[in-house]
Specification:
The structure holds two protein chains of two kinds.
Chain A (H helix, E strand, L loop, with lengths): L1 H45 L4 H5 L7 H16 L17 E9 L8 E5 L4 E5 L3 E8 L14 E8 L5
Antiparallel strand pairs in A: 1-4, 2-3, 4-5
Helix pairs in contact in A: 1-3
Chain B lengths: L1 H44 L7 H13 L8 E4 L9 E9 L16 E9 L5
Antiparallel strand pairs in B: 1-2, 2-3
The chains are: A alpha+beta, B alpha+beta.
Chain lengths: 164, 125
């Protein structure tokens, strides 16, 4: 009996440790996917400059087209529907939220410009027009602990790719 | 005799307890490497508008370095040069070894690592 109790305890510890490990791994995979998808989406959004402004020697980003492209890119890279909910087969399990999206160009600032966002702890020198985006999704849960885990939140900044 | 049989049966359980977390971690790392390579390839292909053969070879070498058989890795990407703002896709499929010793559910285990990265081309002709 004593042996069985020890065995059951060891088994319980093993299962909890294993699930905890799986949860950490899932967090890392999802964070990696979110970061890359956010980088790609911001990269594509920043390419959408107004052609008229280019002819005038300025680079102004089309805000609406940039946001639409940003969302479409997130959906394509993460397997989401239009409302940013995961489609069947997607690696993510919870909705993705765009918590910050900002376009910086010559309409509002002069470059080089030191961009700061204290809430999301972003600070970067920008050399040209840029898109800044922060997205998040819920922390994967395999073991419900006492504390609620904060969401996985990733920032991305992409500057306009200058052609030299 | 009875005790020996019981211990022999529990030996397998002990073995699973020791080995499974390590196998699980290897599986996770390989998944991460395949995904990271798809993203790397898409990022590097964007300025040229195509995933060229050098880049394809580089990705295969990266995957071979972590033990995946390059002959069984499938890399899918367009063969035409895409112009700026056109969609560029990179898909990688690599064979996945069964690394879980015990299957809890009825769902079949995945037989491959899959990664898909999508980015806009930056290429200006």
């Amino acid at each position: 009996m004593d042996y069985l109790i020890k065995l059951a305890f060891a088994l319980l510890l093993f299962i909890l440790t294993w699930l905890s490990q799986e949860q950490h791994q899932e967090w890392a995979v999802e964070r990696n996917l979110l970061k890359s998808a956010n980088n790609f989406a911001a990269h594509d959004a920043v390419q959408l400059v107004h052609q008229e402004s280019v002819a005038e020697g300025r680079l102004l980003i089309d805000d609406e087209a940039a946001y639409e492209t940003f969302i479409a890119d997130l959906c394509a890279n993460l397997g989401l529907d239009g409302s940013l909910q995961p489609l069947p087969g997607s690696r993510l399990r919870q909705e993705v939220k765009v918590v910050w999206f900002e376009v910086i160009d010559e309409r509002t600032v002069t470059f080089p410009y030191f961009y700061q966002h204290p809430t999301y702890r972003i600070a970067k020198y920008l050399r040209g027009p840029a898109v800044i985006a922060v997205i998040e999704t819920s922390h994967p849960v395999l073991i419900r602990g006492f504390l609620e885990q904060p969401p996985i939140r990733v920032p991305a900044i992409q500057e306009f790719a200058f052609i030299s | 005799m009875k005790e020996t049989i019981v211990r022999a049966l529990f030996f397998w359980l002990t073995l699973i307890i020791l080995v499974q977390p390590m196998l699980s971690h290897v599986d996770y790392l390989l998944d991460l490497v395949v995904k990271a390579n798809a993203e790397y390839a898409a990022e590097k292909a964007a300025p040229e508008g195509i995933m060229n053969s050098d880049l394809r070879q580089e990705v295969l070498q990266n995957l071979a370095a972590v033990g995946l058989d390059p002959d069984k890795v499938i890399i899918e990407s367009g063969t035409t040069v895409l112009e700026r703002t056109e969609r560029l896709d990179v898909r990688i499929r690599a064979p996945r070894q069964p690394l879980f010793l015990f299957r809890f559910g009825s769902e079949a285990m995945p037989k491959e690592y899959y990664a898909h990265a999508y980015v806009m081309s930056e290429y200006i002709p």
